[in-house]
Amino acid sequence: MGDAQNLQSWEVKASSARERRDAGLAKVEPKLEGIPDQLPLSSQDLPKGVLTAREIEITEKYSVTELLKILRERKISVEEVTRAFLRRAAVAQVAVNCLTELLWDQAIARAKHLDSLPEPKGTFFGLPISTKEHHGMVGDNVTTNASYIGWVGDKHGSNLLYDILYSEGCVFYARTTQPQTIMHLETSSNVYGVTVNPYNRTLTPGGSSGGESALVGMRGSLLGVGGDIGGSVRCPCAHVGIYGFKPSSKRISVFGQRANMAGKETILSTPGPMTVERDVLELFMKTAIAAEPWRHDPSLTVKEWKPYHFTKPLKIAVQWWDGVVKPHPPMLRALKEVADACRKAGHEVVDWNCESLGHDEAWDIISGLYWPDGGKEVLSLIKGAGESVLPLTKFIIEEQPNVKDRTVAELWELTAQRDAYRARYAKAWTATAANGEREVDVILCPPSFGAAAPLEQSRYWGYTSQWNLLDYPAVVFPVTTVDQVKDVKDTSYVPKNEQDRFVYDMYSPEKYVNAPVSLQIVGRRQYDEKVLAALVEVERAMGRP
Amino acid sequence: MGDAQNLQSWEVKASSARERRDAGLAKVEPKLEGIPDQLPLSSQDLPKGVLTAREIEITEKYSVTELLKILRERKISVEEVTRAFLRRAAVAQVAVNCLTELLWDQAIARAKHLDSLPEPKGTFFGLPISTKEHHGMVGDNVTTNASYIGWVGDKHGSNLLYDILYSEGCVFYARTTQPQTIMHLETSSNVYGVTVNPYNRTLTPGGSSGGESALVGMRGSLLGVGGDIGGSVRCPCAHVGIYGFKPSSKRISVFGQRANMAGKETILSTPGPMTVERDVLELFMKTAIAAEPWRHDPSLTVKEWKPYHFTKPLKIAVQWWDGVVKPHPPMLRALKEVADACRKAGHEVVDWNCESLGHDEAWDIISGLYWPDGGKEVLSLIKGAGESVLPLTKFIIEEQPNVKDRTVAELWELTAQRDAYRARYAKAWTATAANGEREVDVILCPPSFGAAAPLEQSRYWGYTSQWNLLDYPAVVFPVTTVDQVKDVKDTSYVPKNEQDRFVYDMYSPEKYVNAPVSLQIVGRRQYDEKVLAALVEVERAMGRP
């Protein structure tokens, strides 16, 4: 009886969240027409069939930088840009299920207001920026549920970062999905269902900021904000072929976000930009930091954003694998192509041999630190609301051997292990400068074992979570797509362990039609500026402007 | 039987630690002569009766800057300087019981080595630097006990900070006492007994870096290193009238120190310089940070030391009291004198009304965060070795109502309270810039409720621990001494609460003969450079160069 009531009540709550979302979508004007009943594998061509030529122009023709320029010059109105992105976001929602809310009225009112100003004002003047739902939202009557049934309808407010972006003139117009617990590298929940990859709907758009990546991957947004504690910005960006940056923690504020385990500080999440354009990463960081957010969130590092400039060729260390799980063939090809290009451009390219650095041990530590209470708080929030525990929640809590309900003393022990591991890794990096050698500037590595995984298969985090444990800044950037001819399976490979076997068995090129393949550049802790500067050099080596 | 054995064994261990200390003292050449059997109230005149005229000249005539200059110019040998400070430290030991070890052979060997170099090298070339025992030590055959009987004789090594100072050419020659648990604002332990104030042996030299302050207060050292998690650098410096700086955490490394509760990160300790000369604080910070210690201790903030320069008069907020405990008359007089001098020099002086900012609540939070396991680990280390739990250990663990053995979830709750409190304080500071006003630059406040307390009476931490909870940088500097005429007791004052009553009842000027009185300057978190720049301006206003 109790259970049945609970079940009913959770369904009611989930519906109410979707009704709120649908109410925003229902306002879309003109109505969406031209979407086929049977959605195609790739959603990339859908907008063309629905949007006007002008809307296509606005959402596809410009880079962010160009769009900001014509907005500032008032060659285009904020309202026209906003309406185009609202409509395109609505198409994205139908195609890949990426929204939790479309802020139709609010965004248009904001746009009209910005248009009415005598002078354009702010770095992001007039730019529609999409946002991850659990961060909260500027404005009145905000609710935030973080994809927990138990929190559906809960009143909430804005956060410090969004207040800054807003004061820089942006338009908030779309809030995006995240998975149950916000701790999957995919994006599904009992509230909003499954978000899929805009290049191949049998694949995940990644997670936990997968609503963002799916939306930006549809150009339903050119700049979104995600958050990353184990790969949640980088993995989704990599899976849709966009740019994403995870800064070192405490450069950008999480102040005001809604999340579990408030007060946990063993491993910290950080917001990060997700965008179609490389140079916007730095613009975002610079703007967020120039506001001196530490005057309101005193936990932040007090340090200006100071762009870095290389004055000589880089020393790039390539991590071909992490010693635990072998990347899929398209990933290895991407690595080789970019490493070759860097060498050809005059950079020093060496190997990052991390077999002795225990990336498996790093996972043991971080997985334990994610859930120092064994997941008790989160599981009770889920079960208490009557919703089901999803498979990837089980994976990340119940199936990790080092996730335990710890005493404070046991927590200290694990935290001390973390610190010892960090020191060991720093020592290894510093040692690259021994014997008169130059120190490695950055590591070039996979952001995942492969392209976007088939749904529910994202069960190895090592390629991103490693850099969360170390708190190293890391950026992902698009490189190629899976090639049915070049990226054949290596049938002679013998997996080294159970995880390696799982990942090896997953691969077969035909599962990954159209799938983008991205790479990751990692720097030492708090050398955020250097990582973005390295990305510029690497892309130049690749022949990009 | 077991107890008796245990008792015996702890006494044996304590003796062995003191024997190690005494073995170093026994090497002092020439032997100390001229110390009276009955030690006087103030130890300030003792060195004159023991040391040679040349030793007095070396240890008293020069500032640190001057001494470094003549050492660099080789106008004096490192060995001669080292021997003078070794002898003076030995006198200090007899007078105030401040040493755990005198590194006679090691220091002289080091000095000879430095003298043999073709060129002087390093910022601290030839300077004897004294150090707090639990930090560890450069060299072979090091043991570190942190004043725990249970750890006596334990092998240990150096730490990152000392490695840096060593590579900058200093001479380590004396290790100093700390109290049981390193968590008293005084300095006594079952290993080394009681360290007393060099100006008045009935008073404490403060703690927990009280061995350092007692030694520097005797000019047995001109620069020492302490550590601060609740006042342990500032309180002892204040009590002997020297300069001491507690930087924001994570600018100077604790990497390699010996301490309890490894892995605890709710409240962090930081090393800090303790010295006779103001400008050495900045030299110390600059040198420690220029070494890029984050390449070895990746938990540190990656940020250069960038000296700050005021270009207009300061806005100084005076905290006359903390809303909990009224400072003693000499402290209030010192505040008034310095505030008046600042006003006269053209600075804007306003009040820091913190009654509404809940400094008592801050204490509840930080006292709980000091001991998230209710003190279990530490108490079991003490009791397990058979030694007694000292009164100030009982005070700081057992007598604090918010010290509890917490679950991880309860720890998160308290940590979240800490973060909320920090945000509230930041908001109040930021609000001083509202309505077109200038923002407060620094707070001028007491570093303690009064001058050095009579032994075992240091039972109110609020004037220092407040800034540890907030992680604000803070510097203390000497102002005056207790004046038997001016600093009469305010007999009309009615204490506001039990703590206030305790502190009020403690005061009576004749208890504080000769006692130095110091003040504290506090800045916003991570504005370390600004705090030291403010100290220069405040001292100039006081008529100091």
TrEMBL record, chains A, B:
Region ranges (Disordered): 1-23
Q: Which InterPro entries match?
A: Amidase_CS, Amidase_dom, AS_sf
Active site: residue positions: K132 (charge relay system), S208 (charge relay system), S232 (acyl-ester intermediate)
Q: Which residues form a coiled coil?
A: none
Q: Which superkingdom?
A: Eukaryota
**Residues annotated as binding substrate:** I182, S208, I229, G230, G231, S232
Q: Gene3D superfamilies given for it? A: Amidase signature (AS) domain
Q: Which residues form the Amidase domain?
A: 80-532
Q: Top enzyme class of this protein?
A: hydrolase
What EC number is given for this enzyme?
3.5.1.4
Q: Which GO terms describe its molecular function?
A: amidase activity
Q: Does the keyword Metal-binding apply?
A: no
Give the reaction(s) catalysed: a monocarboxylic acid amide + H2O = a monocarboxylate + NH4(+)
What UniProt keywords are attached to this protein's entry?
Answer: Hydrolase
Similarity comment:
Belongs to the amidase family.
Protein's name according to its UniProt entry = amidase
